[in-house]
Design a protein that fits this description.
Blueprint lengths: L1 E2 L2 E5 L6 E4 L2 E3 L6 E3 L4 E2 L9 E3 L6 E3 L7 E3 L7 H4 L2 E2 L5 H10 L4 H21 L8 H17 L5 H13 L3 H9 L7 H12 L7 E2 L12
């Protein structure tokens, strides 16, 4: 992994500085892919795009801002930039706040946010924790899953696989099995076997995949 420059942005509301790192190159060594399509790769980390200002709590897309500059690791000047807040991924509550705020535009952005909510809940399982803290938590999860399904294309086999996984995560094993039986893409055959097995065990939760192509969602409108 070769780090790239650190980009510096200003909050569009209060002008507080925040930074986001970048990569020149990375790799998927020691990575783990999951049945919900998430890849955790220590040598190819994700960096946030939708984030919030730690000073005023304003939500915004970094990709819609123009950076005010960059710096590289080890530079001795630009101390104000180097001491700025780092852009972070949002919490589940903040993702829901983003959906309610009215600045999420189009199916692509909504799909991205709803996938992030799905993954954030599933991250609790990945961390071997409790996925729902109360009944309201589970209700939010289920409603988000149903809304995410509406944004996915069942004619696209990758997205159809994700639909099947969402249904499994909701505990609807019959619908999951119906969907995966119609998937003909040989590259997805491994995950079909995995999901069929987990449905047989009545296991709702996300699972790691070994040497299996993951389902993907590109979020295009």
């Amino acid at each position: 992994m070769i780090p790239g420059p650190t980009y510096v942005f200003q909050c569009p509301q209060c002008h507080n500085l925040l930074t986001r790192e970048s990569l020149v190159s990375g790799n998927t060594f020691h990575s783990t892919g999951y049945s919900d399509g998430k890849l955790i790769a220590p040598m190819l980390p994700d960096f946030p795009n939708l984030t919030k200002c730690k000073k005023c709590n304003h939500l915004f897309w970094l990709s819609k801002l123009e950076e005010i500059g960059t710096f590289n690791y080890g530079e001795k000047d630009k101390l104000e930039w180097q001491n700025a807040d780092e852009a972070e991924f949002l919490s589940i509550d903040d993702y829901f706040r983003a959906l309610d705020s009215g600045f999420i535009i189009g199916k692509g952005e909504e799909g991205f946010v709803r996938q992030q909510i799905w993954w954030a809940f599933n991250d609790r399982t990945r961390a071997e924790g409790i996925i729902f803290t109360d009944n309201n938590d589970e209700s939010l999860y289920i409603h988000n899953c149903l809304d995410f399904i509406e944004l996915l294309d069942p004619e696209n086999e990758n997205e159809k696989m994700l639909i099947a996984e969402v249904y499994r995560n909701m505990g609807n094993f019959g619908r999951c099995l119906e969907l995966i039986e119609d998937i003909r893409d040989d590259e997805l055959s491994g995950i079909v076997v995995n999901l069929r097995s987990e449905c047989g065990k009545k296991n709702r939760w996300v699972i790691p995949l070994e040497k299996v192509v993951q389902p993907t969602y590109d979020g295009d409108d």
